[in-house]
Amino acid sequence: MSRLTALPPSLPFRHPAALVATWFGSGLIRPAPGTWGTLFTFPFALAIGWTGGAWALLACSLLAFAGGIWAAGYFCRAAEKDDAPEVVIDEVSAVLLVLAALPMTPVGWVSAFFLFRFFDILKPWPISAIERRFKGGFGVMIDDMIAALFTIFSFLLLDLIWMVLT
Q1: Which element (helix H / strand E) includes 29?
Q2: How far apart are CA 73 and CA 131, in angstroms?
Q3: What is the pTM of this model?
Q4: Which of 82, 83, 81, 92 is nearest to 23 (CA)?
Q5: Which helix (H) or strand (E) holds 127?
Q6: How far is CA 133 from the centre of its chain?
């Protein structure tokens, strides 16, 4: 059963940092806020991809990354945590980057979701090292962007293997 996490007392939901950091509240859903944040990105990505294509997805990813540094930093300071689980703008930015690079097909997008969640949850090296090295809003955001790059390269490798085998 899903439940919602309360915001820090000093940060009302209407505050822009709370709205951006939690991706309009999706990061407040428990369990697995990162998964919810990723899922709630797909309708936006679909609209962005249909209207502007891969370049628009890339631009939105970079905008989310820049805004996310501010929002994640603000939220984490208010929550008194280094990387508050409610902050999911990092997943939003990273998934938009992945979707910009992968084919706009059901297989591409389903692969994007599962491969990204795999790398975001497991955090293999160097993702884990980067997560420990950087703090603040940038630290919250950058490890997910590296997980996005792992996702893109993994998809390309799997696609190449599939082409060779078929």
Answers
A1: strand 29-30
A2: 14
A3: 0.96
A4: 92
A5: helix 127-133
A6: 19
Selection from 33, 42, 63, 15 nearest residue 112 by Cα: 42
The pLDDT tens digits along the chain (166 residues) read 678 999 999 999 999 999 999 999 999 999 999 999 999 999 999 999 999 999 999 999 999 999 999 999 999 999 999 999 999 999 999 999 999 999 999 999 999 999 999 999 999 999 999 999 999 999 999 999 999 999 999 999 999 999 999 8
Q: Is 21 left (phi over 0), alpha (psi -120 to 50) or beta?
A: alpha
d(CA 154, CA 47): 25
User: Would you give the distance in Å from CA 142 to the centre of its chain?
Assistant: 10
| Residue with the two structure tokens 């992968």 | 102
How far apart (Å, rounded) are the C-alpha atoms in residues 63 and 84?
Answer: 21
